[in-house]
Specification:
Blueprint (H helix, E strand, L loop, with lengths): L3 E2 L5 H10 L5 H11 L14 H10 E2 L3 E8 L6 E7 L3 E10 L2 E6 L2 E3 L14 E4 L2 H15 L5 E4 L9 H12 L11 E5 L3 H8 L6 E5 L5 H7 L8 H15 L3 E7 L7 H11 L4 E7 L13 H13 L4 E3 L13 H10 L2
Parallel strand pairs: 1-2, 6-9, 9-10, 10-11, 11-12, 12-13, 13-14
Antiparallel strand pairs: 3-4, 4-5, 5-6, 7-8
């Protein structure tokens, strides 16, 4: 029988385990701190845990195995793209972005993705598998160890749809925010989704004050369904209502991600239509110069078009920023490095 990853367990789960093993409940906190604060990868490193308990744990549990396969440095903006091999032969990717306010890490929640967005490299090849909470945490821990600095913000916006891997994603967030672990404030954690309405409704009931980013990418349902086939199950206006409800329930402003694609969703009429849909609501639009993906063929909107689009939104009362394009010289966009590596290595 395969061993369970101890890195993926929340404190409550560890408490149940140590009690079932006939140990005192406080042992769970000791183990939890070894795994998530000191980030060890061997049971024998737990110097305040008895050899007997270590042997019991080693029989049924293992540490998440994550190996850095490749690292690319941007000569433009100090962005670092990481390629990791996790628990065998699964290849995933993460990105470290350096800002004036601290280090931000973008992690993957799945290997591949089944949402089939037509402009995204992550969806090429579909979904390989969900990542465990331990594998998601391992990306953050590995990057912190590599740079020797603390990560101050985490974005679940790499390959995969985090709400399609709901339980593992929630475990990841709770463990990352735990005072016995990294103690990263939930307001420094952003979850990006293509808009699974039922899961957004479920998320808002969890009481987690995280930031929600929704990949909108269109001013109406017709354009969105062509770009994002999965949105057929999430009608445009229903999604906007769910986002408004999320803000009302959590007090957290929703960010709408909007990748501008030349000739598809970047016209002035699109900007006016979008403003009409979301103007007056508590939200923010993040305009993204789309990354060129060879297999997709879409072209990014021109710089002038992007600024014109932003100006129209601002004049109609919508808060907007234009995302700074980071790591353009190292395939830092979601799925690009993993795809090229897998193609070369026959994975």
């Amino acid at each position: 029988m395969a061993k369970e990853e101890i890195n993926s367990l929340e404190l409550g789960g560890l408490e149940e385990i140590v009690l079932a093993l006939g140990e005192k409940k406080f042992r769970a906190q000791q183990i939890y701190e070894w795994v998530h604060k000191k980030q060890i990868d061997n049971f024998n490193d737990m110097t305040n845990v008895s050899k007997r308990l270590i042997e019991k744990l080693d029989e049924k549990y293992c540490f998440t195995h994550i190996k850095m396969e490749k690292k690319l440095y941007s000569e433009v903006d100090n962005t670092i793209k990481y390629l990791f091999r996790v628990n065998g032969n699964t290849i995933i990717e993460s990105v470290l972005m350096r800002y004036s306010f601290g280090n931000s890490v973008c992690i993957s929640s799945q290997a591949g993705c089944r949402m089939a967005c037509t402009f995204c490299a992550s969806a090429i090849g579909g979904l390989e598998r969900d990542l465990t909470a331990g594998e998601m945490l391992g990306q953050v821990y590995s990057i912190q160890k590599d740079i020797g600095e603390r990560v101050s913000n985490v974005v679940i916006m790499g390959s995969g749809e985090p709400l399609d891997n709901y339980d593992n994603t929630l475990k990841f967030i709770r463990v990352l925010a735990s005072k016995l672990g990294q103690n990263l404030g939930m307001r420094h954690i952003t979850l990006s989704t293509c808009g699974l309405i039922d899961k957004i409704n479920k998320l808002m009931s969890e009481g987690l004050p995280i930031n929600l980013a929704v990949s909108l990418h269109a001013p109406n349902g017709g354009v969105r369904e062509k770009l994002m086939p999965a949105s057929k199950k999430a009608p445009y206006d229903d999604l906007l209502r769910a986002c408004k409800k999320y803000t009302e329930r959590t007090g957290r402003r929703v960010t709408y991600e909007y990748a501008l694609i030349s000739g598809i969703n970047d016209k002035q009429g699109h900007a006016l239509e979008l403003a009409g849909k979301i103007g007056g609501s508590v939200c923010h639009v993040n305009l993204i110069p789309i990354n060129y993906v060879e297999e997709r063929g879409f072209r990014p909107a021109s710089e002038g078009t992007i600024y014109s689009f932003a100006d129209i939104l601002k004049k109609n009362g919508v808060e907007v920023t234009i995302r700074r394009k980071l790591g353009s010289d190292i395939n830092a966009a979601c799925g690009q490095l993993r795809k090229s590596y897998s193609n070369r290595n026959g994975l």
